[in-house]
Amino acid sequence: MSRQRAEKILVTGGTGFIGSHTVVELINDGYEVVIIDDLSNSKIEVLDRIEKITGVRPTFYQLNLCDIDILKSCFKKEENISAIIHFAASKAVGESVENPLLYYRNNLLSLMNLLEMMKAFETSSMVFSSSCTVYGQPDQLPVDESTPFQEAESPYGNTKQICEEILRDTAKAHEQLCAIALRYFNPVGAHESALIGELPNGTPNNLVPFITQTAAGIRPKLSIFGSDYNTPDGTAIRDYIHAVDLAKAHVIALRRMIEQKNKSNFEFFNIGTGNGFSVLETVKKFEEVNGVKVNYELVDRREGDIEQIFADTTLANEELGWKAEKGLAEMMATAWKWQTEGAV
Q1: Dihedral sign of CA atoms 51, 182, 322, 205 in order
Q2: Locate the NAD(P)-binding domain: which residues (predicted)?
Q3: Contact, 63 vs 70, CB < 8 A?
Q4: Cα 221 to chain center, whole Å?
Q5: 8-190+240-273+310-325, what's its fold?
Q6: Spatial separation of the C-alpha atoms in residues 3 and 27, rounded to whole Å
């Protein structure tokens, strides 16, 4: 473990899937961590798990970022927050199609309130949890950072596009602020300890928790949405990245701004492996690695889903000095270990 750093880092959504993995990496790298989470899609027990892994229990506040008065009182209490890693957001594509106002209100207002606090309390840096959904269904694959945005396929994707525009404009207007948006592809897997992983409240919206819960008998059947896409096996293709690799990218991006190595006030990077796997390939890899069968059925496409996307990660590899290390087999193995041994 590294020596204690001076920087205090606020992590919003820090008890969630990617948030908790990033908190572990931050603590292991010597940062002091403060978590804000409203626990709408995570559990308080995650704090115990983080402490068990790292030996450190981060400061925790349960609050809604859309309430600026409560947020301001938190900033007053926690002096000298050096930087923010902002995960907290509503993130289910299907739900966003059904309830767009919830997504616009929660995802946009929470970011704007944090930026107001950054100005008021002289917090200079933010790593923003963006998404490959900003690209929509791209005309060419793989997508790099110069790929133009297409019209978003869902309100969720649109909120990520708008949030990046808010960050760009705010950083341009206030030169003391800087931000890096990490456009991640599809995070899966779990920490090797099986103490933290992806455990959505209610019905999962992401593929891998649905695979693991079906394999474990919690759910009777996995529905694969769409079997008539223009892909080799007809199912959608995604670029899956291990949660630990993704967490490490946040720490590297954070350090880039703290050490003032960023080349502009607003930067953005694709965070993926650069490999595309179909839904069926992913299910088959899970079965192969873990020796478990998954009961699945092919059903109609789901509104808001795109056909295929995978990353060109050259910029992140070269500029950040970051590269994904874990392959699909390890992603599927750790996801199953988490489901069978660790899930809260």
Answers
A1: positive
A2: 10-333
A3: yes
A4: 26
A5: Rossmann fold (3.40.50)
A6: 10
Q: For all residues of the chain together, what is the average pLDDT?
A: 95
Q: Which string of b and e fits 197-209 if b means at least 16 CB within 10 Å?
A: bbbbeeebbbbbb
Q: For the chain, which ranges sit under pLDDT 70? A: 1-6, 344
Count of beta carbons in the 10 Å neighbourhood of residue 2: 9
Write a three-state SS string for the chain.
Answer: CCCCCCCEEEEECCCCHHHHHHHHHHHHCCCEEEEECCCCCCCCHHHHHHHHHHCCCCEEECCCCCCHHHHHHHHHHCCCEEEEEECCCCCCHHHHHHCHHHHHHHHHHHHHHHHHHHHHHCCCEEEEEEEHHHHCCCCCCCECCCCCCCCCCCHHHHHHHHHHHHHHHHHHHCCCCEEEEEEECEEECCCCCCCCCCCCCCCCCCHHHHHHHHHCCCCCCEEEECCCCCCCCCCCEECEEEHHHHHHHHHHHHHHHHCCCCCCCEEEEEECCCCCEEHHHHHHHHHHHHCCCCCEEEECCCCCCCCECCECCHHHHHHHCCCCCCCHHHHHHHHHHHHHHHCC
* Token code pair at residue 234: 């007809």
pTM beyond cutoff 0.85:
yes
The separation between the first and the last C-alpha atoms of the chain, rounded to the nearest angstrom, is 26
Q: Are strands 81-86 and 125-131 parallel, antiparallel or unpaired?
A: parallel
- Token pair listed for 188: 């899966």
- Partners of residue 182 on adjacent β-strands: 129, 269
Per-residue burial over 136-172, b = 16 or more CB atoms within 10 Å of its CB, e = otherwise: bebeebbbebebebeebbbbbbbbbbbbbebbbebbe
Q: How far apart are CA 134 and CA 148, in angstroms?
A: 9
Which amino acids are annotated catalytic?
156
Q: How many other C-beta atoms lie within 10 A of the C-beta of residue 22? A: 29
The residue with tokens 């793989």 is: 142
Q: pLDDT digit string (tens) for 165-199?
A: 999 999 999 999 999 999 999 999 999 999 999 98
From the list 86, 111, 91, the residue with the least C-alpha distance to 253 is 86
